[in-house]
Amino acid sequence: MFVYEKRLQFPVKIKNTNPDIARLIMSQYGGPDGELSASMRYLSQRYTMPVKKVGGLLTDIGTEELNHMEIICAMVYQLTRDLSEADVKKAGFDAYYIDHTKGIWPQAAAGIPFTSLEFQSKGDAITDLFENLAAEQKARTVYENLLRVIDDPDVVAPLKFLRAREIVHFQRFGEALEMTKDTLDSKNFYHFNSEFDRMKGKIL
Amino acid sequence: MDSSSLCPCSEHLAMATVPKQEWCEPYDLITALEEGTIFPCLNLTFYKAPANKCHCKTHSMSGDVQKNREEMMSRLTAVSFAINDLTLYLDTHPDCPKGRELFYQLLEERLSLLTAFSSEFYPLTQTSMITGNYDRMKYGWTEGPMPWEGACI
Ligand SMILES: [Fe+2]
């Protein structure tokens, strides 16, 4: 179960309204490589993970991704909370405003709504861990794309933090892959699927 | 850990390998929060993300209570983040004594910070409503700003 703690994992304190940046950052809420996808990916995959320690890691990283989702939403909120009628017309936020006013709703930067088609839970430990390694790299790329076009130091600080987390998560999923490989036949890692053909694996 | 980790990549075709992290001496906790990891060896920076100092300034009007609350919240944020990062490290290194020692030490500091924050200001978790001497008549969400408001607390 999940329990709420009344603070952010990383503080978000943005002084200047900027709907243009908000629209870009929103992609890390509801976009293809966003934090909502990340949390749902790991929290969905964990149930059938054959190695208990890997199921634990997926729970902990999936939970951290929920914290990141909250950080992104706080950023979008603070960048748009003082939005004026004039801001709406001039800043590229108008299409979003028509549908959601200033409400926070998960969509990609290009306006595509959040969809679970953007992540996988494949029921094969090796496949899912590679999915996760790739996902962390894709999210790192998005944070770097954001950092390249954003200069407000209030916005850069949390983006820099979130980017660094993607690299740490990549490392941990790499270690999870090694733990999973230790339970398989190293002569042929693909001889059976340790999630479906369960009885064939070593139980660790 | 086992013989396969001695020579991980040369033997196996069609499989990738990520080397296992060795323990490296952590940053101080404030730097760790700013950098996004407690481990210097995992801090692989991007050229366009400059070093950034925490930007919430105490207002001169607000006095000691505000200053005390901000300091306590900053420490709690740093300690809690270090625990987050150590949790993932220990998930894949459960037998590392240095990691475990720091983990338990930080868990104790976090518990006392949550208790002190609840006693002096307002509770951040349900459990910290009873671990400190929080006024039991003041139940509710109305105390303290919402976390996403960006208030200087
Ligand atoms: Fe991540």
Structure commentary:
The complex is a heterodimer of chains A (204) and B (153). With 204 residues, chain A is mainly α. In chain A, 58% of the residues lie in helices and 0% in strands. Chain A has one domain (19-181): Ferritin, core subunit, four-helix bundle (Ferritin, Up-down Bundle), CATH 1.20.1260.10. Chain A contains 8 helices and no strands. In chain A, helix 1 packs antiparallel against helix 4, helix 3 (35-45) runs antiparallel to helix 4 (52-80) and helix 4 runs antiparallel to helix 8 (153-181). The longest helix of chain A is centred in the N-terminal third of the chain and has 29 residues, at 52-80. Chain A is elongated, with a radius of gyration of 19 Å. With 153 residues, chain B is mainly α. Chain B has a domain at 26-33 and 62-153. The mean pLDDT of chain B is 88. Chain B is elongated and about 65 Å long. Chain B has helices at residues 29-35, 63-92, 97-120, 128-131. In chain B, 42% of the residues lie in helices and 0% in strands. Chain B is built from 4 helices and no strands. At the A-B interface, helix 4, helix 7 and helix 8 of A face helix 1 and helix 2 of B. Fe (ii) ion binds at residues 38, 65, 136, 139, 165-166, 169 of chain A.
